[in-house]
Write a structure and sequence with these properties.
Length: 111
């Protein structure tokens, strides 16, 4: 089964797990399985339209064996049992307003 590496700030939603085994033939299916296993993660990876987060101000980058999924086939990238995905959440440093990892996507920014 593929593995997804969970960033430290999000491990509170995976019972402290740093890596989670997932089912799925594609990167998108693997991420869906991750949020099925740990539903509290969904708000951090998907927006309120249930789309993977890719807005100008906040985005989730996913690496597959060190290659950026955006440079492959995106969420349709096929996986094999030995693949390892890594979640990276990024914000532009000067625009983010200090949003924290522990806030769901779209949460109000602190004033």
């Amino acid at each position: 089964m593929p593995t997804i590496r969970i960033p430290v700030p999000l491990r509170q939603y995976t019972d402290g797990q740093g890596e989670v085994k997932v089912a799925g033939a594609t990167a998108g299916a693997a991420l869906e399985d991750l949020t099925t296993q740990y539903p509290d993660l969904r708000g951090y990876l998907y927006d309120d339209q249930d789309d993977f987060v890719t807005t100008a101000y906040e985005s989730i980058n996913v690496l597959l064996n060190a290659a950026d999924l955006r440079e492959l086939q995106g969420l349709d990238t096929p996986l094999n049992n030995t693949d390892r995905l890594m979640i990276l959440r990024t914000w532009p440093a000067t625009i983010s307003g200090g949003q924290q990892w522990n806030q769901p996507v779209g949460a109000a920014l602190p004033e």
